[in-house]
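Priority: medium. Attachment 1 of 2:
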């Protein structure tokens, strides 16, 4: 997920350099959405990993 966010960010930078503002704006929005999804999934996995680890210690 993070890989695709970086790819769309690079596409946006290249498009902005060549003057394609609309394409760059679209690529930036996609990159933002993918990055937010990545962060949310990352935090959820940390919480579940912590809960699972703590649950195993109590037994």
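Attachment 2 of 2:
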């Amino acid at each position: 997920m993070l890989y695709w966010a970086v790819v769309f960010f690079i596409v946006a930078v290249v498009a902005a350099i060549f003057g394609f503002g609309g394409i760059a704006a679209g690529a930036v929005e996609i990159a933002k959405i993918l990055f937010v999804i990545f962060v949310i999934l990352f935090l959820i996995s940390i919480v579940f990993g912590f809960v699972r680890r703590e649950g195993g210690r109590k037994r």
